[in-house]
Amino acid sequence: MTAIGSETTxxxxxxxxxxxxLQIIVVGLRLWSVVQLQRGRIxxxxxxxxxxxxxxxxxxxxxxxxxxxMKRMMVNPTDVGLLVQYMKVAFAIGFVYYLGLYAIxxxxxxxxxxxxxxxxxxxILWLSVAFLTASFTVTMLVNLLACLPLSTNWTPTNYCSxxxxxxxxxxxxxxxxxxxxxxxxxxxxxxxxxxxxxxxxLAALVVIFIGAISIVSNIVRMVKVLxxxxxxxxxxxxxxxxRTVAVWSHVEWFFAFVAVCLPSYRALWHRWxxxxxxxxxxxxxxxxxxxxxVGHSGVMSLGSEDRxxxxxxxxGGHGTFGDDDSGRTVEVGRAK
Length: 336
Fold this sequence. Notes:
Blueprint: H1 9-37, H2 44-75, H3 80-115, H4 122-145, H5 166-193, H6 198-225, H7 235-261, H8 266-280, E1 300-301, H9 304-312, E2 321-322
Parallel strand pairs: 1-2
Helix pairs in contact: 1-2, 1-7, 2-3, 2-7, 3-4, 3-5, 3-7, 4-5, 5-6, 6-7
């Protein structure tokens, strides 16, 4: 049989927990930027992102349990009880993976709704929501019903999984890739609409590129697992398939989190640069960070292009920004 992958149990554990810790840091910095720097409130996109983070941590815990069971089965290969536990955990992790991944995509759509609140493109957003919801529903149903009766997912003598069913494997992969592309196309439209400088266009494209890495991770996982799909998949091969899936699923999760959170770090950057320039008193502009929310007098001076970039991060309405590139004071609530 063609080699499926070379990922070991130790590799799975290392990748799962190193990336999980980094994800906590990435999301934590985003929330700190919102609450502390912009004096904003946690919004819907932030809540959904926290839910996604919880699912990713549950996934890391589930994969840890899976690897422990694999090790124990090597010592006691005839223990049917261990085998059944292993299969049940593997079955459950499939749901957790898709719940976390679709939650990240939903968080991005929630951000886009803040930007497109009064634009004609809101129709596109509602169509995107419909497609994402339909894809998620189909994904959950396929995971649940691809192998019937349900008990065959954890029956050693009649093993079945979505990977052993080619139609299920390809359908789930296609839906995942299609929704990934969908959520990346919308900010691409923003880059051309906002008329940013070349430098900031490049910054926005870098964020989109990082999101594309998540798609590449999905494709790599598909290519590595492909030799193990089909009715010829036996249980021993399935262990290597699951190790491969676990590693690349965590990689995909991580880059998806980075793509969602990275734009919000603009506020961290401006916190540092504004303080530095204020001390030097060389720019002649005010760089006072607001200690109040929208509608109050405290402002943080950002150019108009910076405000658009902050809006791209989903924080239109979290603060009042003044002193645009023409020297006028502008209050920004939502992107218009």
